[in-house]
């Protein structure tokens, strides 16, 4: 009887460390499988394997795959890249017991208490000279309880206020991002997207993002900009209810939801106050 119990335990441990019928790269060893499980779910795709990733975004490194119909053990939930899936449309990702993430858009599960995953993106060291992009008060904070997928801060500057580069760097992206229509008009909350926006790459692989500009920005990708250079002007394009600057800071490039960090803490470490 003891030998039979040992065989069963061994089989269960093997099942836990297997993803989609193959050993998942980076899976935790059986001796370390002590992470509390919040609940389980079932992968529902169109029949294709579901990618498991190192972070809560489709651009994070793929760590393995899960077959359609596989059962997953969920540890916690994290705000991440918005995904339109076969089960739901959501910006939440589920962290599994092996440390990987899958989009909750492809997981069918019963409702159960879902703890929030703790942010593990480190705060970068202080380098160079920085300034606030606009002189305006805080309207909405970084990943608040009411807006857990809000990856930046909203600063309530008036329409046409100049938006300045927070530090010297290179413009890496100038784009219109809106789910429908044009970025040349005021947006609304029923839309998704950043409207007209600019990204700047700074020393230390830091990226800043500036959203909802009123018109096409005057800068172009590849241009070097000094601290305080005008990147564009405050508007309300994209998913927006009124003129403001949505400002993001990312510890790493390219900028993804997985490497977004709190701009308030980032600027405070540089002697600047957002509030």
Could you say what the CATH topology of the largest domain is called? Answer: Glucose Permease (Domain IIA)
- Helix share, percent: under 10%
Q: Provide the low-confidence segments as ranges.
A: 1-33
Computed CA radius of gyration, to the nearest angstrom: 21 Å
CATH architecture of the largest domain: Distorted Sandwich
Quick one: how many beta strands?
19
CATH homologous superfamily assignment of the largest domain: Glucose Permease (Domain IIA)
Instruction: Give the H and E element order.
Output: HEEEEEEEEEEEEEEEEEEEH
How would a crystallographer describe the biggest sheet? 8 strands, antiparallel
- List the total number of helices: 2
Structural class: mainly beta
CATH class (first level) name of the largest domain: Mainly Beta
Total number of distinct structural domains: 2
Average pLDDT taken over every residue: 85
**Dominant shape:** globular
- The fraction of residues in strands falls at 25-35%
* Distance N to C terminus: 66 Å
Compose a concise summary of this entry.
Helix content is 8%, strand content 34%. It has 2 helices and 19 strands.
Describe the structure.
With 275 residues, the chain is mainly beta. The protein folds into 2 domains: 13-108, SH3 Domains (SH3 type barrels); 138-268, Glucose Permease (Domain IIA). The protein contains 2 helices and 19 strands. Strands 10, 11, 13, 14, 15, 16, 18 and 19 form an 8-stranded antiparallel β-sheet that branches. The protein is globular.
